[in-house]
Amino acid sequence: MLRYLPFLLIIALTIYAFIDCLNTPEEEVKHLPKVVWVMIILLFSVVGPIVWLAAGRKRVAAGGGRPRRTRWVAPDDNPEFLRSLGEEQERRNGGRDRDENKNDKDKDADPGKE
């Protein structure tokens, strides 16, 4: 069984490189046209996939190059989260809280009004 392992690894590497090449957009393929890369991968079973993975396409940095926060922020300290909670509460109550708060402020301003 162990003697089949190198052949299985070569087949797995070839299949992975082939699928990766087919799924890569044309504008991300480097040095040669995509069709030529597919031929190289399929014709040169060990060298082709390795060359494709090393030099065939533009690689992006881990994380996708997206901007990251400098540190983790707890939900109760995150202004976006707190704002979304307030908006959600307003939607659920249909604006009732605003009317009640307005009435409470009017009562506080004129205590004889009760």
From TrEMBL:
It comes from the Bacteria. The chain crosses the membrane at residues 36-55. It is a multi-pass membrane protein. It is found in: Cell membrane. The keyword Cell membrane applies. The keyword Metal-binding does not apply. Residues 12-57 form the Cardiolipin synthase N-terminal domain. Keywords: Cell membrane, Membrane, Transmembrane, Transmembrane helix. Residues 63-114 are annotated as: Disordered. Residues 85-114 have a biased composition (Basic and acidic residues). This is PLD nuclease N-terminal domain-containing protein. It comes from Streptomyces toxytricini (Actinomyces toxytricini).
